[in-house]
Amino acid sequence: MDGDEVVTQLGLRMPSPVEEINDDRMTVTGVRLLLKRDDLIHPDLPGNKWRKLKYNLEAARTGGYRSLLTFGGAYSNHIRATAAAGALFGFDTVGVIRGEEHLPLNPALQFAVDHGMKLAYLDRRTYRQKTEPNVIEDLHERFGRFYLLPEGGSNDLAVKGCAELPAEIDSDFDVICCSVGTGGTLAGIAAGLQSSQQAIGFSALKGGDFLTDDVVQLQRSALGHATQNWSIETEFHFRGYAKRTPELDDFIDDFERRHGIRLDWIYEAKMMYGVFALAARGRFVRGSTVVAVIAGL
User: Fold this and answer.
1) How many CA atoms lie within 13 A of 53 on its CB side?
2) Is residue 99 part of a domain?
3) Is the pLDDT of residue 6 over 80?
4) 20 to 30 A Cα–Cα from 168, which one of 59, 176, 291, 292?
């Protein structure tokens, strides 16, 4: 699976465009804001989803696998993207969902089913043990041989894919920001930065302090060491994963009126709200350039 051939065959928009945002809330702070529009890479494989899957799909094909299996919550964008990748690249797919089945399916899970994914459900206690050998063995007994993708798609190969993002930005910048669910995107982006640049991740999960250890482990596994050029903000979760507040909804509506971009409320809106809040607090040096990664659904 040659990378250039895939980009051409699927019509992937690579590299994704970079757009400058003119917003008085940033202008007053003296900070230039750029958006890395990874949401425009592909309608079904946007943003970090393609970057995380890219080398994993290559490894699955090389290893002779015909099936992909992965994990996620009921609103997981990774589940959705894995189903789309399976349909596009000819893999069977299985999505192991946290919790009980609820019908009718929400849009994310319905999309997955419509793209050929089989859904299985694990109670929350078993789901917490999803990486244990006995749980994986049970899944193999049910679904046969499969290439295992971790929850959120974050592994060594995902870090490798995400590390390619900074080099695509042809403008000088000082800080790059991204949303954080499992930590793979932040781990990779930080690995691809120049020595003078910093990365900030914004947790979409309540109580996301544990993500720091997860990013460290991902970098150590993928790179052999953890970099010191990143941090994670845990304040802007808006009550937790797949939760929202009227304040967040108002921000999303206002951002769309100003800039014509509808932010994903599970991840990107929380990150972007945090970017504006940190700018207002003087977190970014006046005259600096900040890049915000818009990964889409």
Assistant:
1) 26
2) yes
3) no
4) 59
